[in-house]
Protein 1
Amino acid sequence: MKGLRIIEIGLLLLVLAGAAVLRFYDLDYRVMHGDEANQAMKTGVLLETGEYAYDPYEHHGPTLYYLTLPVLWAGGVTSKVEMGETAIRLVPAAFGLGLVLLSWLILSPIDRRAALLGALLVGLSHGLVYYSRYYIQETLFVFFAAGLVWCGFHYPRSRRIGWALAAGAFLGLLHATKETGVLVVVAMLGALVASWFLDWIAGGGVGTARQLRRENSGEKPAPHSWFVGLNFQHLAAALGMALAVSVLFFSSFFTHARGPLDSILTYTTYLGRAEGHGSSGLHEHPWYYYLWLLGYYYREAGPRWSEGLILGLALVGGITCTWRPLGMRRAHSSSDGDYYCSTVYTPDLIFLQRFLLTYTLFLLVGFSIIPYKTPWNLLIFLHPLCLLAGLGAWRLLGASRAVWWRAAVALVLAAGCIQLAGQTWRGIFTYGADVRNPYVYAHTSSAIRRLTDRVDGIEAVHPRGEQLHINVFRPGGDYWPLPWYFRAYPNVGYWPNLPENCDADIILASPETAPAVQSRLKNEYHVEMHGLRPGVLMPTFIRKDLWDAFMAGRTTD
Amino acid sequence: MRVLPHVLVVAALCCGSAPADTAAGADDEVLSFELPEPFYGGTVISYWSPKLEASVYQDRKPYVAPKGTRVVSRGKPVRSSAAPLVGELAEIVDGDKEFAKTSLVELPGGTQWVQIDLGATHDLYAILVWHFHAGARVYFDVIGQISDDPEFKTGVTTLFNNDFDNSSGLGQGEDNEYIDNSDGRLFDAKGAPARYVRFYSRGNSDGDFNHYVEIEVWGRELGEE
């Protein structure tokens, strides 16, 4: 038994190591998305000035910025210029790896082998890996939600206040990370009720309950309820902890009094956005959008993407935990061949499985109904889908004791995991910023590096070096992530309107404004084109004398 | 396939009204290129550059070459600087020029080349290249070269080079950038002899990758009458 335990721990470490490679390796490979750049610049301001004020209209909660600070401090980083993509992306990557461990912790009370499979799928999932390498709030958000599930499950088992306080802390962090935390909590509460209802209907499992009555005590197992025996003092302590954590972050550690109030008032903004008001109309997608991204995605010539293995296994896990959950019956054969099971019935584990199922369904349906959709929003239910898939994989393996069956299922699972791993690798590297990747959304073109290399090249020949003057004329503020890439240059102007004098060392325009810009230029310029996003181009003017100096330095092989 | 323009051109030539640069001698003929169906869709490219060749909304001028000039690249071996991410190199010379997803060969980012071995030295005339025509794109650092040296170290003739900043390191080019379309881009080898044809590119206005739908080399075996 001890040997088996060592093997399990070894396998878990292997899963964690693989997940770590996918999350931490070459973190700066992909160019920065505009949203990442935006978040990074806010972190930079916090780092340099210590100032942060929650914005109820954009950018989500403050946890990402504050939790990045220790990483930057540890690396000796003191300014935006010194911040690198790797340093800031370490934060979501670490939470992404933590999510793998947390998945194992959530599932292991049900079955340690199913927990390993669940952790493996979380570790390999393209969506979960992709956004673990992405400097936005989403991975932290999913981690905190998973932490709340973990603590929320353990509290009623032990009734210890420590679990209640930990659950409260996760709840507070969830709220302080993203406004949609409230939807997650609603889904959790709904799932608690629905799971209790399922238990009440099924009596812990239709088939087994009948078998129990027939073969053993004849009693229908009482449905488990998370609510029964709830200690209201502990509940109050948990809510107090949640409030404290939330206020701590939203008040910018007690330096911005209005923050906590804004964290509530913000819901008027986000309600409008969910209904598709304002610029969010750009993000309106049909109800099946998330299933499409997960199930089968193929756009133009290129790879085909699918996390169908996770969906399929989750379906198996969902069906089996409704009908006959793990822990329902661990029948032991006695000497005369009769079965007994009364001593191993585990209603809390059955409840947890049904909770995972209903919680996932509520999130999936809820987020699918909301017109506003972005690919990263699916992470919140992709994670519990992976947990259900872990349960489903284990149920499939155990569906028959026949060696050929287990070997066949193991082979199919291994092949599926190889497909997931290969797809994830392509998704984070080869197609990391390519529109054919289902998780690439309004992403900066990797061609941005042509521009940044060009600016660096011009800076190298400029008499005043990084003091060169750059003007950006992009109407509507459509210039992100340029502020991130130009953070080392202090003389960059982002103009909402064209001034009379447009001249600068380098000028970036939009195709619409370029003719007007050109007509106002007094100096002579070299003109070339650079890309911001696929189909979004930037006519670029480089002062002719600087261009000539730059070209003079280029040798011909 | 668009045959009508070529019929009209032949008719024009017969009537002696062909433009001077397309005048055909007794031993010449107008090459009849098979063109794929154009793609009607996608977004209009907002490429704004004085280096961009103006779009021409007319059929290409007829290309006159000695009689017997034919496609000599079909099915010939193709090499590249990097393994394709999508498709197989053989698809570049398989005659399928359609914009369909299945026709595209994708090479990784950075400066990449593909090279066709014609098997023997040929007098080369028109070389048509389709990078991508399911949407408007500009490919960067397009360089077309021919040579008898498979390594392209000696005897290299450069037919086209629009690498204006020498970012691919093969020399600064003076040619203009252009938007790919279903007509393909014609590079004129003007009868120069060579066995190998190589094309470079360095990403495009949509992203880093390099693409080819088809390369079609028209020529005659050396000394062929």
Note: The mean pLDDT of chain B is 87.
Protein 2
Amino acid sequence: MRTALAIARKELSVYFTTPWAYGVFTAMAALSSFLFVNLLVEFQLRQAEARATSWEQMSPNLHAYRNLTDGVVVPLWGIVIAITLFVAPFLSMRLFAEEKRNKTFELLMTAPVKTIELVLGKYLGGLGIITATLGTTLIFPLLLSLHGHAESGTALDWTTVLLGFGGVLLWGATCMAVGLFISALTESQMLAAFLTFTVLLPWMMLTGVAQSASEPLRSVLLYLSFDAQLHEMTRGILEVKALVFFTSVIAFSLLLTHRTVEARRWA
Amino acid sequence: MKATHLGQYLGALGLMLLLSSPVTLFITSGSLTAAVVKAGLGLVLVGVYLATNLESFRQFASSQASFAFLRSALTVLVALCGLVALNYLAATKGARWDLTQGRIHSLSPQTVTALESLPEKVVAIGFLPPTHEANALLESLFQRYHEQAPERFEYQLLDPSSSPELAARFNLRAGQASVVLVRGEGLNAPHTTAASVSEQDLTNALIRLTSVGTQRVYFITGHGEWPLEKEQANAADPGATLSELRRQLLHEGYAADAMYLVGTTDIPRDASLVIIAGARAPYTEPEVEVLRKYLAGGGRMLYFTDVGLEDGLGSLLAEYGIQLDEGVAADSQFNSGNPYVLVSKFYSNHAIVKPLVQRNLNVQLPMVRSLGVLREGMAPGVRVEPMVHTSQNGWVETTPAQNAVPSDGEKAGQLTLAAAITRDTSDTPDKRFGEARLVVLGDSDLLLDSNWGHEPNRNLVMNALGWASHQVARITVRPPDREVSTLELDASAVKRMRFLATDLFPLTLMGLGIAIWLARRHK
């Protein structure tokens, strides 16, 4: 494990000294900020409508705007999840592909490092960078808690907010695991990013497909759908099945990565 | 082109056809023939690949790498099977925890009681078009009900257009989102429809489906009581009707009708409950006698009055241990900025108010009339239980327009604002129930449409109604919601936040990155 942590540290140090990573941070911050402000404007608009009439007379679909947690933070996490789908492939693409392109992969293979340590080290490095990227979005709930008002004094339901953020992190960790596996398959970084995106996007769109399917396929597709699994978590409900599902995808991706890297030893 | 290369291309195409055939069957066309043709063609093409690349397979099979490959494939397969099994267990048996403040995604006690008291299996059918926005909400709601009572509550979601025979059976309109609850099995199984996709309506539909017969509520009219219909409202005050209360009663399975007492000698036998709400003109003696006879025979009544009203029912109330105070109940500490707008968290242990205590809900009663509890002169078997009080700083203000402080001669201390009364009628011949029930509240404004949205007050009324009509399953709090929170930003504050979030924040990150990168480069 010590070797894995050393590899992770090295990966993180490479990430944090690369302008590319900061480009990704900036893109994540700019996009999520822009959409966050739009959510705020929408929230204020709905609250003004409610003040003019009453919540009882407004559509039940708009009742989420009664509070900042449901009206702003829950949809914000939905947006961050969608942005992560685009951002994560660019962070995971270099994990193995760059080593292959720079011909350092063979060196790694001959070094006294177990494949499992190599895979875990690379993954932990990727996990660190995605956590840092997603961590920038915590600034938005903090801003809301500074400016928001509620009778009890706490404008946000922090348990829901943090559980939602946990869901976002779980999603980021899953993206990085899938990206790590695809990065191990190719030496082209752009191809790795593109393939990761191509795998994750349809996977995320399974909810839409499930809606037009009939039982029992519908239930299976909904279970396999990333966003359906995350839906409850962002609303403040912790489900064992979501934890098991994401952990399974991560574990399976790491296993595939391990076998792919190991295959280089046979070749 | 070499045959081996052509075989590889065809093999790849065949694999795609083979793997996509379930999509054809279940999602795109739904045609079994098309799916079988695709799968068959795919198999043939994969066969072509195998035949043209036989030599490569021979080489692979004889090499050391092939054993390693097979071992890897086996490991992956075993791991996959293990993970599928684990996920199946998690999906079917996995726990869930509602971590929100106030447990807003958990079923209310009312729903739990209703589910626990289901006499037989109920199937809920959600008829929604697949793209309907309420789809996920309804599924999650159904899931919670099913988890609470897996043996007695089942559900399915159907597209009305793909199940026309069921849509016709339940008289559903095209494009309409509906939830139908069916009790038992067979074509003639009783069913009911939920008014909307919410826990409130779904549970009410459950109660309605499982209750025997229809509960009928009569609103006494003819003495200036609040009207039941919006059309009967005073033009100057269109919100001053009981239409929202009536609507809620209908949703909960009650039939609600207005009733004149003049010319009658008895309350109809099908009455579960009689409500008097804000009577302004005195009842005649024969009318009072009808009510007296009704209560003495085990009847159930809710009585709401207001400050200054005189309806001639004082003697009847006195028989049930209640005297209405003359004046306005006031409280110098527990009010909403006005001593006559009382905010009360002072409840007894009565079943009607217990859920309010559990949920820490305060009722708010503006211009309420307090009640005096009598110790003697009552009818035999009467038991009075005060339910809602003011604080110890309450008093009855007899001249509210002149001063808002307690004066000499005014009743002071903890006042009673609502009371529940029972009377043992088990020995009464031809009785309706063995116990008469009466709830008295010194405010009828809380029943009006314009005030019906106040959740604690609404709960007080509906719980009283459930208790009085003996619908124990309804005595609970309506589904909770998160605490309301607001954000007050004017245009310039929004501009500042936009600048901070979309400009300064990303650029700072970028600047930080460039600085670190440059510093590292120059090391």
Note: Chain A has a mean pLDDT of 87.
